[in-house]
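Record pair follows.
FIRST:
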Amino acid sequence: MMQRLFFRVLAASTIMLLLIGLTACNGFAKNPLTRIAPTGQSKAAIFVSKQAPVMGSMLVNPERLQAFERDGELSKIKTSLLANTGIDYQQEIKPWLGNEITLAVTTLDIDHDSENGQQPGYLMALTTTQPEKSREFVKLLFSKRVLAGANLTTEQYKGVKLISDNQIPSTSLQPEDIKNQNSLAGAVVGNSFVLFANHPKVLREAINNVQVFDLNLTSSAKYQKVIQQLPKEAQAVAFLNLPIVAKWQGLKRDAQTYDNQIISLVSNSNGLLAETAFLGNEETLPPIAQLSKPVDALQYIPASASLAVAGANLNSLGDSDLGQLWQQLTAALSTSTEDVTSLFLPLTDVQKRWGINWKEDIFNWVQGEYAIGLLPRQDQTTFDWIFVAEKSEQTPAAISRLDTLASSQGLSLSSFPLDEQKISAWTQLTTAVNTSGEAKDRELFTIEANVLGTRADVGNYEIFASSIEAMDKALTAKDNSLMTNPRFNESIAVIPQPNQGYIYIDWTKSHDILERQLPILKFVEVLGKPFFQNLRSLTMSSYGNDTELLKGGVFFQFNP
C-alpha cells in the first residue's frame, strides 16, 4: 500500500510545524483558533532565497495562542528558549512582537567553501508592531552578549544597521572550530521586521533578496504555484525545496519527480487540519480514483478498529501520483521496496507462510472499493486484520490462485458455516502429543488446525480475515461498523471531497504498533508531549486532480 507511505511522509513533514508552538494548544475542540484572524501568507518570504532548503512560519501571535493552552505549555516553551539569555519575554519581546515568526535554513554552507566544513545559514524574521521598542530590544540583547564576553561589530549595509558578535576565539582553536562558534547577528529592517541570523553574511544576503526581487522566494513561479494551495485561514505554513533538503540530509536524488512541498495548519471546532501539496518538476502521473463518499466496504470494518484504510482501485496505485511519490521516497531513503503493507499491517507472517505477494497476488485485482482494518486482541500486543474487496471479473481467478498458492505451501482449505454465512479457511495441520487421557501408559496423537486466514463471499464483496473471530466481527459489524462511529464521521467531514480514500488511526489503540514500526515516533512524542498526550485520532487523505500537484491532508482530533 504505497498510499500509506505518502501519509507517513506527510505526517513527518508536519512535525516541524506542530512543534513551533501549536503543539502546546491542545484545547482545540472547545476553543477553535479560527476565531483568530491569521495574517495569511508569510510576509518574511521576501528575505529568503529561492535556493533555501526550508522555511517555516507561524502566522499567529503567541499571545493569542496563550488563551487556548491548558497547562502553561507555551510559557514553558518561552522559558526554555530564553534560558540563560537574561531576556524577559513579557517585558522585552511581547510589547513589540507582531503576528509572524519565520524560521529558515537559508543555505547549506554560509561561505560556500567545503574545505573548511559546512555551516548552514539560519535566519529568524519577526514582525514588529513598534519599531523603536524592537530596536531597543536588539541593542539590549547584544549589550548583554558583550557583557558575557562577546566581541561586537556594527556596520551599515544598504541602509540597514547590522549588529553582530562572536565569542572571543581561543588561540588553541582550529579554523573549523572558530567557524562554528556561537555567533549572532541582528537588524531591524524598516518598520516591519526584526531579523536574527547565525552570521552577518546571512543578514546581508537576506537584505539583497529584498532589494533584488528575482533572488527571493516570492519571485519563484513554483512557490507561487504551491502557495495558491494554502487555505486563507492558515495559522502556520512551511515550504521545502526537496532536492536541496535531500542534499542537506545526504539522501539520494534519483527519481526526483517532486521538487517542492508546502504545508499548512488550520484549526477548526473539532481539531487541527494539516494540509500539504507536492509540486512536480514535470507533469506527474494521474491521481487514483476520486471518491465522493466513504466506501461501502467500511460497513464490514468494526467500529472498534484501531486502524482502517479505505479507497478504490488498488490495482492502479502503482501507476498513480502516489506511486510516483513512493518511488521518489524509496530512492531517496534507500529503503526496502518490499510490499509496504508490512510497515503498518501485520501481514508479513502470512505472506511468508503462503509464499504470496500482497501487491501482486491480491491488490492487483482490486479494481473497485476496498477496506482494511486492524482489530486489537485482548493481549494488546497483536492484531487481527480484515480485508474487504469489491468483486470484479478478475476475482474468481484471483481466488483460485490464492488456493493454489496455499496448497503449494502445505495448507488445507476447508469450508463450514459461521452462523448463517458459509466461510472458507486456510489451515495448517500439525500433530501434537498428549500423555493425558484414559490410556495413560501410551502417548496419544492429536491433529491441530492452525487457521492462517479465512474468506467469505458476501454480496458484492470478498472478505478476508486473519482468524475466525475476526471474520465473525466483520460479518456482524453492519450495525456497529466504522461508518457508524461518530469520531470517524467527524474526522472525514473535514477532509475535502472528492478524495482518494482515507486512513483512520485511533491513536490510543494504535500507539503501540506504530511505535514498533516507527521507532522515531518515541522521540517525536517526547518533543511534542502536550500534543500527543491529548491526541484522540488522526485521519489522512489525498485529494485533487491537478496533474502537476499532489495534495493531501491529515486531520488531528483531540480529547475534549
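SECOND:
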Amino acid sequence: MSAPLAPRRVGYAAAAMSRHFNTAGPCKPELHFMLPPDRRLPGVRELIDQQGYFVLHAPRQVGKTTALLSLGAALTAEGRYAALLVSMETGAAFPDDVGAAEHAILAEWRRSARHQLPADLQPPPWPDTLPGSRIGAALEAWSASSARPLVVFLDEIDALRDNVLLSVLRQLRAGHRSRPAGFPWALGLVGLRDVRDYKVASGGSEHLHTASPFNIKVRSLTMREFTADEVAELYAQHTTDTGQRFDDEALRQAFAHTQGQPWLVNALAYVVTTELKPDRATSIAMADIDRARDVLVDRQDTHLDSLAERLRDPRVRAVIEPMIQGESLAALAPDDLRFVLDLGLVRERADGGVEVANPIYREIIARQLTVTMRASLPAMVPTWLAADGRIDFDRLLEAFVACWVQHGEAMLASSPYNEAAPHLVMMAFLHRVVNGGGRIDREYAIGSKRLDLCVAHRSERLGIEVKTWRDADKAKDPTIDGLTQLDGYLARIGVGDGWLVLFDQRKGAPVLPERQAVETVTTAGGRRVKVVRL
C-alpha cells in the first residue's frame, strides 16, 4: 500500500510569503486564507464510500475546484483511495473531433496526476485504442493497475459540447458496470450546470433534459455560499496573522454586500487589506468595506466582467428584464430560469421567488445595462447643486424632466432591454449625477411592479420609485398603488423625501407635453412626495 503523500514543497519565495485573500484560481493553504473546503460538500465522502457516481454543480468562483482538490488530497493521504481532480476543459478546443479532444484530455490528466498522486499511483500508459473509446479505456487501465480504489473528479465537464460530450458520457456509463476493479470506484462530474442541462446538438434539442446518457448518477449536489459566521471566521484568519481587526460593523457590511458569495467575500477583503488599509495598525471599518465595494464595481474584475457579459444572453434577459420592471416570470421557460440560477446571477428566496444574488451583482447589472445611455447623455451643468455642494432635489427633478423631454425618446431606443428602458434611463441619469460624489442603492424584484432607488449624496438621501403604465394594465392608473409602495419604502429606509416617477407607456397615451406633470402629494404615512408623470 502506498505511503501517504509527502507535504507539498513550495519554493523559497512562496514559503516566505504571508497569506492573503485569494481571487484567482484554487486556494492553497500555505498561501491563502481559506475555510475547510469539504465543509460545503455535505455527503460527498459518504457517496464515495458507497461507490457513488454523482454530479456537483455550482456557479463559478464558489470553490468547487478548491474543495475537490483538497478532498482528493485528503482521501489519498488517508491511504484508502487514489483520489484526484482532473480537468476536461482542454477537450473543448476540439468540438468536432472526438479523437483529438480525447488526446488533449488524457495529456492533461497525466500532468494533473503527476502533481496530485505519489509515484506508485500514477496512471499506466494509456491504451492505444480507437477514437470514441479512449477515455473509457484509460479509466479501465488505470483502475486495474491502481493499488487502491480510484476516485476521479472530472472538473469543467460542461465545457465539452455536442459529440465530444456525448461520447465521454456514454463511455462513463459503459464502464460503470465494471467498477471497482475495471473502472473508478467513485466518480464525480463537476461543472456549472446539472447533467440534464449540458449543451448538446442532438435530437432536435440543445440540452440532454434527462440524466441519460449519464443515468448512473446517484445524486446531484451543489455548494452553498458562505454564511455570515463563515465570513467572520475567514476574516479572523487575517487578524490572527497580521493583528489587523475587522470591526463588527465591517463584518456585517461585508456579508450584506456579498451575501456570502465566496469570490466577492475574498475580493472585498483583498482590496481593503492591500489597497485601502495596508497599514496593519489600523482597523477596518464599515466605511472601508463600502469603499472596497465601490472599487470592485468600478474596476469590474474578471469574475464580475464575465457575469456582465452574460446579460446579452437571451435567457438571462428573459429573467433580468422583468425583474428590473418588477414584473412576473409567468411566461418564462423553466430552462431559462434554471440557467440563470446556475450562473449564480440570481438566487431563490425562502418564499420561492427569485432575486439578484447580492447587492454587488445588482449594481453591476445596472451599470452594464446603462453604460451606453450614460455615454449618450449630453454634458450637464449641475444646476441641482446648492452653494454648499449639497443636492437640491427640487432642482434635480427639474433637470431630469428637462433631460427626459429633450433626450428621452432617443435614449429609449438605445436601451439593450426595451421593456425596462424607462427604468434604465432613470438610473443612467442619476448615475451621472452622483458619479464620484454619492451612490445609488437599487432594489428590484419579481412581481413588485416597481423599481426602488435610494440616492445618497453626503448626508442626504432621496427615495425614488419608478413605475410604468402599459396597455396590459388596462385602465388602472398605478399612482395609488405607487404611493402606497413608496410610503412603505421610505419608511423602511428611513428617508423623508421621495419621488414617484410614472412613465406612461400606453399606445394611446397623450403626447409627452400634455401628459407631463409634477405635483406634490401627501402619502397615507404623512410624507410629502413628488409625483412625476412622463
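COMMENT: The two ends are 78 Å apart (CA to CA).
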